[in-house]
């Protein structure tokens, strides 16, 4: 046996009078007895349990807790535990043998059940299966306050630019529209007119020079302003230099 029950209460009540060495000798004798499952021979037992220098304590424990027979020292309680262990071991072996016996024709092997799949389980993707995408992140419904025609034009524009219309993108456009103090409808109209896939509030500054000059200057049109008008017609946002000039004009106006 490589395992046996150890009742602490019973052991304590029967061994409280033992010295330290006697207690150690008793525990080692029990381990030896359970491990080998046969009577203990007095000869060399102290050496076999590692207590050669405490042979007298070992013999004292043998005489008190073990019974001397012709076959050697035995322990009735340990023999009872070993007998129970052997009975359980044999029963387990017989049960295992029955389970692995070849079934007869009258008892064919049952067809194994398919693996259990819990309800609402996510299917496992195969190599030929298209990846599952989260379609909820794509904004396709017409936003509130935006006409269907403008929304369709904006969708076509994004599709042509290979830019998906997502909820995050629309929130960003709405935020910039609020900064520019324009409605979402106006922001999307501006995007469609200028070919923008996105919208920035600062880009709306170019509206201040969107109208053509009605009174030509004696010295001609400022080259930087002319370039800004050309960029605006091409749908490009104004440069930082132009934005600074426009800010300066507003401060002096």
Describe the structure.
The protein is mostly helical and 253 residues long. It folds into 3 domains: 87 residues; 65 residues; 50 residues, no CATH class. It has a two-stranded antiparallel ribbon. α2 packs across α4, α6 packs across α8 and α7 packs across α8.
Range of helix content: 40-55%
Q: Say how many strands there are.
A: 2
Rg (CA only) = 47 Å
**Spatial strand sequence of the major β-sheet:** 1-2
What is the tally of helical segments?
10
Gap between N and C termini, in Å?
103 Å
Strand content: under 5%
* Largest sheet geometry: 2 strands, antiparallel
Question: Can you tell me the number of structural domains?
Answer: 3
Class based on secondary structure composition and strand pairing = mainly alpha
Task: Let me know the average pLDDT.
Answer: 77
Shape: rod-shaped
Q: Low-confidence parts, pLDDT < 50 over ≥5 residues?
A: 208-218
Task: Please write out the topology.
Layout: H1 8-15, H2 20-36, H3 45-48, H4 55-65, E1 67-68, E2 73-74, H5 76-100, H6 148-160, H7 167-179, H8 184-194, H9 223-233, H10 240-252
């Amino acid at each position: 046996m490589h395992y046996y029950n150890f009742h602490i209460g019973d052991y304590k009540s029967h061994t409280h009078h033992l010295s330290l060495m006697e207690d150690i000798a008793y525990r080692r004798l029990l381990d030896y007895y359970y491990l080998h499952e046969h009577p203990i021979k007095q000869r060399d037992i102290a050496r076999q349990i590692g207590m050669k220098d405490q042979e007298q304590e070992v013999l004292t424990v043998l005489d008190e807790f073990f019974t001397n027979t012709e076959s050697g020292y035995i322990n009735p309680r340990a023999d009872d535990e070993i007998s129970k262990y052997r009975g359980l071991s044999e029963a387990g072996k017989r049960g295992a043998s029955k389970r692995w016996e070849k079934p007869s024709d009258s008892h064919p092997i049952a067809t194994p059940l398919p693996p259990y799949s819990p309800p609402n389980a996510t299917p496992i993707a195969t190599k030929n299966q298209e990846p599952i995408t989260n379609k909820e992140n794509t904004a396709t419904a017409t936003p509130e306050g935006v006409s269907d025609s403008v929304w369709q034009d904006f969708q076509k524009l994004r599709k042509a630019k290979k830019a998906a219309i997502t909820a995050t993108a629309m929130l960003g456009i709405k935020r910039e529209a609020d900064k520019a103090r324009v409605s979402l409808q106006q922001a999307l109209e501006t995007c469609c007119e200028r070919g923008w896939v996105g919208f920035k509030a600062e880009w709306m500054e170019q509206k201040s020079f969107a109208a053509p000059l009605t009174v030509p200057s004696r010295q001609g049109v400022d080259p930087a302003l002319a370039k800004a008008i050309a960029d605006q017609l091409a749908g490009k946002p104004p440069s930082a230099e132009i934005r600074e000039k426009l800010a300066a004009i507003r401060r002096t106006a």
